[in-house]
Amino acid sequence: MSEVEPAGTRVIRSYHAHIYFRSAPERQHALVVQTWIGERFNVQLGRVHDIAIGPHSVPMYQIAFSREVFAELVPWLMINRGGLSVLVHPNTGRALTDHLVNPLWLGEPLAIRQDVLSDAPESDVISPIEPNTSPTRTGD
Length: 140
Known about the structure:
Helix content is 26%, strand content 20%. The protein is globular, with a radius of gyration of 15 Å. The protein is built from 3 helices and 5 strands.
């Protein structure tokens, strides 16, 4: 057995959560969840994609958030996702590993298209999180 040191969490620059929807009722609920998130968390809400895009096999929207927001947002998503599938992944600069090896799934895991992902280091690809929300409520 090899003696490899474990990776430290400092390699995680930020996180993404992808909220998926596959029907009109799921889309409607996903938009309600998006509003709730914007009211409660200092995050960057992405555009709603009504078609599969990038590595995602179904429509979704992205939430980009800092390491500091993880401990409040992810547990909140666990109890407020309303049956929606949610992919939470770290951003380490290695997209393939981030999406397929190190993700956290809430609800049903969905297919991720690995043919559009790379594990080549992407040091300049991960943008800093610039929140576009103005929370008016607490995470509760």
